[in-house]
Amino acid sequence: xxxxxxxxPTGRLTAxxxxxxxxxxxxxxxxxxxxxxxxxxxxxxxxxxxQFVAVEGGNAGAPVRLCRQCVLINPDASWTAGKPxxxxxxxxxxxxxxxxxxxxxxxxxxxxxxxxxxxxDCSGNLLxxxxxxx
Length: 134
Known about the structure:
The chain is mostly beta strands. It has strands at 5-10, 13-16, 26-30, 35-38, 52-54, 63-67, 69-73, 84-87, 94-95, 100-101, 104-105, 110-114, 117-121.
């Protein structure tokens, strides 16, 4: 099993994420608990939209480099070329099936170029922007 690799990250920042993340995991602001966590748009009472992607892996509570746009290489992915990617409801994964956040269809955050290559752009998912409390 190969680790996903993030290339050409833009819109970068370093922030503390509540849970352990792997490179390429979608991350967003958890408005209920007021912290960054893995994206989980299916959490109906507290949806967490993907606003960033982890550039590197990191342990829970540790600073992690994040970005808004990147090229994601995942040799173990079985994506279908030419399809959009959405944050999954399982927290941290990417899928071709869109989820809904409280009945709102979640925007795609990426597009697959091949089975293990995707272009990611989270800049459109700013419905709940992070605050200066990061």
